[in-house]
Automatic annotation (TrEMBL):
<dbReference type="InterPro" id="IPR020472">
    <property type="entry name" value="WD40_PAC1"/>
</dbReference>
<feature type="repeat" description="WD">
    <location>
        <begin position="649"/>
        <end position="683"/>
    </location>
</feature>
<dbReference type="Pfam" id="PF00400">
    <property type="entry name" value="WD40"/>
</dbReference>
<keyword id="KW-0539">Nucleus</keyword>
<feature type="repeat" description="WD">
    <location>
        <begin position="523"/>
        <end position="564"/>
    </location>
</feature>
<feature type="repeat" description="WD">
    <location>
        <begin position="607"/>
        <end position="648"/>
    </location>
</feature>
<dbReference type="InterPro" id="IPR019775">
    <property type="entry name" value="WD40_repeat_CS"/>
</dbReference>
<dbReference type="InterPro" id="IPR006594">
    <property type="entry name" value="LisH"/>
</dbReference>
<keyword id="KW-0853">WD repeat</keyword>
<keyword id="KW-0804">Transcription</keyword>
<dbReference type="InterPro" id="IPR007582">
    <property type="entry name" value="TFIID_NTD2"/>
</dbReference>
<dbReference type="InterPro" id="IPR036322">
    <property type="entry name" value="WD40_repeat_dom_sf"/>
</dbReference>
<dbReference type="InterPro" id="IPR001680">
    <property type="entry name" value="WD40_rpt"/>
</dbReference>
<feature type="region of interest" description="Disordered">
    <location>
        <begin position="744"/>
        <end position="764"/>
    </location>
</feature>
<feature type="repeat" description="WD">
    <location>
        <begin position="481"/>
        <end position="522"/>
    </location>
</feature>
<feature type="domain" description="TFIID subunit TAF5 NTD2">
    <location>
        <begin position="67"/>
        <end position="202"/>
    </location>
</feature>
<dbReference type="InterPro" id="IPR015943">
    <property type="entry name" value="WD40/YVTN_repeat-like_dom_sf"/>
</dbReference>
Amino acid sequence: MKEKDIDFLILQYLKKKGYSHAEQVFRVQSNLDQAVAEELTGKQGQSHSLDTDAGLQDLLFCVAAEANPQAYVDSFDQLAAWADSSLDLYRMELQRVLYPVFVHVYLQLVQYGASHVAADLLKQYRRRLVEVGGRQSSIRAQELNELQAVAVAQHLDAHPFAKAARSSRSTLLLSAYSFELLMHYLQGRKQWLLLSILNSHVRFELHEGLPLLDAAAAGDDEGAGLLQGQAGHDVGAINTTPLDLGLLRDGTEDAYATQKLQEEEERLAKQTAGASAAAAAAAAEDGFTEAFGNDMLEDGAPLSAAAQQASAAAKRLKAVRDKALAAAKAKQKEILESRRMPMIPLLPAHEKLKKSQRDDLEARVQLHPPDNLPSAAFFSILNSQQTLTSMTVSPDTKLVAAGFSDSSLRLYHLALLGKQRGKLGERAEKRAAGLLPQAGAKRARGAAHRGEAGDGMDVDAEEEELLEELEDLSNQQTMCLVGHSGTVNALSFSVDQQLLFSASSDSTVRLWSTELRKGLAAYRGHVYPVWDVAACPHGSYLVSGGSDRTARLWSTEHARPLRIYAGHQSDVDSVAWHPNSQYIATGSSDRTVRLWDVGTGACVRLMSAQSACPTCLAFSPDGRQLAAGTEDGSVSVYDLGSARRMALLEGHTGPVWSAAYSRGSGSLLATGGADRTLRLFSMPACDNILDAINQELAAAAAGDPAGADAAAGGGASGAGRASGTGIAAGAAAAGTRGAAQHAGAGTAGVGAAGGSAAAGSHHAGGAVPQYQPYQLLRTFTTQATPVIHVGFSPRNLLLAGGPWSLQPPSRQARPGGGQ
């Protein structure tokens, strides 16, 4: 019933009863002028065709039925029977209306205190509602399980699903004629209760023509859930917001690439000059000093075969190199022009950090799946199955930070761990060689100290010194940080690795100094547990997400949040920074992933996580794609420009707790989870400036048939390097050495911590597959460690870790997480 009809009925009632004063007050308070009131009451012609008695009867029926739970049950039963008896052409579309109506009928019954009636209705229709398009919908099954947990009226404002359902409007796609049939039935049968639900909680999108009979019309699994269409028509507006996903200008990698390209150009110029000199010398032997542009001697006699070959090789080599350099410079210019300026103030990187980043770029290993896969260092922490809740490794692989359920943090210094292992090995070797007394000597010394008889042996001074050194190393290698009063749920190092951020269930985020190993600040603003925290890749910002359904932007220089990002219908469980630091991504238990503009605080992308809640997020190095791991073991990869899911990666049999892209081209995605596996997926290569320049150099040389002949000339080695290996080869060689050094340190740290590296591995399908994007390349299975952290060092060493667990980990939630 329209609001105009209700106003008409009230005015008719007041006029019939002679309540002229009340009628006047109603007109004033309802903002009805005299003309509108006369039109409603019929004084200016009978333009309103509503029958007064019938309208009053309908209104009274609707008001009375709202307090009668059985009226809701009867109305829904009749609607289900009518949809099932519809013509085959329209039945599939009309049956789609049942699910959102059922959910809100259930919630209305709970609101009126008829929980037992609601439970019976759910039991009656559960099996039917879970089936979508002839198959079981995991989304609906999960939503109905959550709906079943809403048992009393107090849950309506406390349960996340109930709150989200009552505050949002789902979207249904129907043909125009199916919608007319539905409205004709509801109005003809006076189903005012159901009409009220549809008007308040459902938005219909109509299309012309015949009903859609494919899986999309019947309700595919991606759109079967009630909350899949939340935010309604706003989703389209949000996802068409223009984005500038380019990386920041004047980055260290761009400067490094420019420097290397200039060095390559100088090197090639020298080699070209050398090749020209060699050709000139060959021609001089025939009595002619100008080899280029002339194949004849001064007397008209032809050049010798050797002179002609040298001249042709020099020309072809110069052409190949000129072409390669021109292509590389053009690609470099194209990439640099796509860079953007920051819209928020960022602190410039200090020289020490820039030097460290350049060293990492020089030593970075270029990963090219499926053949060139990374080395891995895995860290397990003993005796922490029920207590370890979070873990992270510093980018320089010197520190491992771990958070525990007892509110403490621990920092493990990997270099000292390796040094201690070396000292223990040295001690064992000396004892085996008889250079140190055996363990019984120490017991003899203790007996003598107590006044007991002994054999007179004492510990050697060298043994004393070694024991003291081991004790010092033991005290330094592990540091316990205390400050939180709740479980430590997440950890994140700053870009310079001097600061460590921690998020806790005590509703705070704390800042720690890794050098002083002390707490520096506490950020208070969240009112419930904080589930995740992430440090900005540029500057002194951090972002946190918590159970209060918000994400908050902080600065190390301020104690209060700079921005609050609100919009999720449930806990914000995971957060991540875009590589350009101008956007942040949040994943929530409402099964959505949002992208926010850091400066304005506006939501610029809204994507559904489909079948389960997102548990971790990872941006590709170029910022064009976002990977979201979920609690059902799948990983969704989204294109941020179009806000569409590009791929669904499957393989895990438990929740995915961490994900990370490889550095540089981002051709690998590593994921780890509760199933105690670490998996590598192939990804589309990003537009990385170093790789792009090398590819242009290689492509230009490979496309010229003279490249093969040039190898026979004096500049053969130079031609090979001109084809693109000049920049990449040095980086790959240095990167291999760097990876080996890091792997050695990591292995020492693992052993000292008592962990185990990946116990076994196998290729998907038993053999190395040909490279294709979004394919499972390899699976590493740990002995007894669920993987709660995955990352890549700047040199592309794969880092992962977790707690030693003799029992299978929980498949429901990450330790200390928000699910």
